[in-house]
Amino acid sequence: MKRLAPYIKPYRKECVIAPLLKCMEALMDLFVPLVMADLVDIGIRGNNPSYIWRVSLILFALALAGLGFSVIAQWFAAKAATGFASGLRRDTFRHIQSLSFQSADKLGTDTLITRLTADINQTQNGINMGLRLLLRSPFIVFGAMIMAFRVDVPSAWIFAVTIPVLAIIVYGIMWITIPLYKKVQQELDQVVKGTRENLTGVRVIRAFRLQEKEKMSFEERTELLSLAAEKVGRFSALTNPLTYVIINLATAYLLYVGAVRVEIGSLTQGQVIALLNYMAQILVELVKLANLIVTLTKAAASAGRVESVLLTETDMKDGARPFPDDSAICFDNVSFTYQGALEPSIKNLSFKAMPGETIGIIGGTGSGKTSLVNLIPRYYDATEGTITIGGEDIRSLKLSDVRSKIATVLQKSLLFRGTIRDNMHYGDQNASDEAIWKALEDAQAADFVREKPEGLSEPVEQGGRNLSGGQRQRLCIARALVRKPEILILDDSTSALDFATDARLRHAIKDLPYKPTTFIVSQRVSSIMYADRILVLDDGRLAGAGTHEELLSSCRIYQEIYDSQVKKGAGRS
Which of 64, 221, 345, 368 is spaced 20 to 30 A from 146 at the CA atom? Predict the structure, then answer.
């Protein structure tokens, strides 16, 4: 857990004060049986009302002091635990944001969500409970034993035997349950993963009437989680009954020994009551300690999972060189393979895109179009070969510079909750309303935004679900254009637009005054046929490159795509 230690260091003072105050509270509890013994032996047996009142006031003062120590200790413990969790959550989220797509894919979205939420919450709870009880409970247990020896040495030896036996039981259960709790968290990951997939693909599930199948799949995952939780629960549940059996046997023996010693006059009734009180305190504290160990075991398992995320280093190293003035892009014998894939998605690809050019990319499903454009902003790094921008290896450039100069509109049009203006500011935080309206005009989105009652202040729901597919796509394109990028990537981002709107959008992009190098990925010939150069991909390889006319006469795959769309009624723009 060394990686998590720095997050608790700012709260060292709280981590010292909280346990010490809890020990002071425990000390008040340890004095109570001694006072009670005097109350019985002197006040009640001696029929001394004034002494009873004085002792009662002492008991009240001990209770009040203990309450004060407890409240202040819990405040310090809560401050340390919440501060730790806040810093850890912030840095974990920041680290996840810094991971490359490859590293994030390796961990999995579902487990990252679980570790950022449930696991950190569990760790926070463990620290909070640990600061309050981890020192207090042993202090009470051993303090009660010491006090018992102070009351009566022969009777107190039962304490010296009972406590080690209980320690062995508690430690053994903890040793068994720690790996089992890790298994529970892993099964929880699978439940979260399945739930996320169902929520994301709910329309597809309903369209194919697979609700019952998904219900059965979810029940299987939750059944595995339940079985894992039940298994660890059975071991954890042994703690209370085993400790109760040991304590009650010790209590019975103490009553027997106490009765005999009271009968012979070597022990008073008040002292017996004090010894029983100390045994009861040990019982209560060991039950608390058992529950605390369960909590700490869960927290340790969760902390290990969070630490593994923080120790995951991105496989993408940042460069040091600034973005060059020349934005010419060159792929030199580039190949790329996704992690765990058997075959490369891009194979020995070479081409060059000059500044201001429009490059169309077309090919069948799975031909590697998206994989190709994902290499340009370094969402992934090429497995083989070199990608250069302005003659500089893209790996040598600062990632922040690369991402600031490149705007990508992904296949899935994703908008964020807020307003239209808020979403446009993702492209440029300092963009004025005038610049936003210009980008909306170029993206063919200005007309429907003007029709909205609140214009740029119109609310956008999560994912943009209160907008149509075409509206979402145009707003995403506008968000990219607000940045005024040097390189613009449109990854099949006009599929929901009609041919006329698509044509107007392409003309508007071509007439942009800052002339970005534009990559247009599309399944439609009409969207890329007027590009300066068209790349035809087939199974990750470059099957052809050239203008529309050149490919019609030289590339069989392009001819087939053209014939299937244009000659058979797909039409051209």
Answer: 64
